[in-house]
Amino acid sequence: MRSIREILRLKAEGVPDREIAASVGCARSTLCECLKRARAAGIRWPLPEELDEAALVARLYPGTALKRHIETFPEPDFAEVARELTRKHVTRRQLWREYRERYPRGLGYTAFCVHYQRWRATTGAEATLALDHRPGDRLYVDYSGDPAYLTDPRTGEKRRVELFVAAWGFSHYLYAEATATQSTADWLRAHVNALAAFGCAPAAIVPDNTTTAVRRALRYDPDLNPSYREFAEHYSVVVLPARVRRPRDKAKVENAVLIAQRRVLAALRDAVFFSLADLNAAIARIVEEINSEPFQKREGNRRELFERHDRPAARALPERRYEYAEWKRCLVHRDHHIEAGRGYYSVHYSLIGQRVEARLGAHMVEIFQHGKLIAAHARVERPYQRRTLDEHRPPQHRAYLALGFDELIERANRIGVSTAGVIVKHAFNRKYLADSIRNALGILRLAQDFSPEALELAASRALSLGVYNYRALRELIMQDTPATPNAGKAPGGCGPARTEPPSSLPAEHENVRGAKYFH
Prior knowledge:
The protein has 519 residues and is an alpha+beta fold. It has helices at 2-12, 17-24, 28-41, 53-60, 65-72, 78-85, 92-102, 109-123, 184-198, 226-235, 251-267, 276-292, 302-313, 395-401, 405-415, 417-428, 433-449, 452-465, 470-480; strands at 138-143, 148-151, 158-168, 174-179, 204-206, 214-216, 223-224, 238-239, 326-331, 337-339, 344-346, 355-360, 364-369, 372-378, 386-387.
């Protein structure tokens, strides 16, 4: 009855019959019959208020079973039924039981379902959209649910491998490949191999909502996997994931998967393969046969349509193949390095404590923050090796690392020859240069804690005594320095001053045995 009222309203507004039929979802013949009966019954829009549905049906269809049905068996509100069916655990049978509780003489369950389906048809819910595929426009990709198998040559054990399938929307041209897993690396590698086999790229790729492609499935703005987004940018294609649980969105690849299962997996069901290379060679031969076979209901074959229409309209491939890279979110540690791929890589020290994203390629590691490249390093050659750029260090770290032994000798010469001699002598007695640099820094600091003159005098005595380390020079200075508020304190001003310096023995003394005693 709602459709009849809508027909009368639209006709009164001057809408063409074709548009009215499309709007209410009926045939033009049905529309013409309804308008003819309305004219015969003298019914025009707007309808009188007293003319309810039963009276309207009685005037348009006098003496029909429909009139008796409406008077005796009222139909459910199917719009409400459709809304209720979207709720969890609600079924048609449950809604039919509730309907029969209100109307015990109402429709039976079968009639309830049939009338509901008819109502859905009038709303267009049951209609399918036949897409008009343009050449070179879309490539549909998916994994077959059924696997192929490899055999271990030593144990004879069978191992499952996955079947990747890609199909062009216009020409139905196929590509299939076996991959070890459905991981992101294998998924993208199969895409790259497919585009290389086609020799061109589509404008858009339509995958399923697998986690290797979509990190978070949203109907209007899906969150793509970063590696998949990078792949799409490399080939200048758009990724249009199918809607969740909507296989009709990718009917082309669903059909291609079915063909691959029936033609490829069925043909190889008894074959034994020991490597992916051998298996993919056999798959390629079968796919070539499929692409070269004539269509059953149209002229030509998949390859001819692809070469004639898809390839000229498709995009050229970039000069460099896409290389898979793993993305990882990292925290910048206190040493201004991140840990990624069993290696440590530096970023600017101002980013300590912040989150960044690392792109781990085969040879390079690139570090991004908010989509901006902030650092790039060659990948480490051994586990837990460090890659550090000098410009990433804080200024005080760069100043410390810039210290060289020659510079320290130059600073010591400005104090005195003896001071420089002590530092050089110490360096000759040490195996590692780092020890000598640390000792030299301590000796030069004594010029600040006491005075350059005191240091030079103590260095002269140290050379005569044959002692060249920091502690010996400090003791010698304290022996000759009167107790003052600052004298005798440790570097940095910590520690009490010594007011009673210990006495030192002369180099030659009757109680000193010397080195000759031990020969």
